What does this fold into?
Amino acid sequence: MNNNRWFLNILTIFSILFIFYMTILPHSELGIGVSKGFINLNPFLIFKQDLTYSSLVVNDLGNILLFVPFGFLLTMRFPHLKLSKVVLFGCLLSITIECIQLFMANRCTDIDDIILNTFGALVGYLVCVGVRYIIK
It folds into this structure.
């Protein structure tokens, strides 16, 4: 295995570990995992609520940005992967996290998180493809 592939493997693993770190452990400085959890199965509830800076930046934008490196690195590591596969892998990782959070009293299981995380993986894919296009 050449050094680039090894390095991309390490970065991809760190990306996944960072996602689990941010989504499983409480982070009081961000207000994550410090209150009683809940379950939301109503898609796009985030757009029906009053958007505050905290909910928009920490929750919504944070969920997207958390998965951008994953989508980017997965596409870098496996250049043959099509958009649909990267989106599928992002969605499956997000569903796994949300299922784990079902059993945690201080975490929220939210369909909107799955949607936003999956969108983040899609953005990561598009950024990678865009960077490749610019470099070539």
Notes: Residues 53-77 form the longest helix (25 residues). The first strand starts at residue 39 and ends at 40.
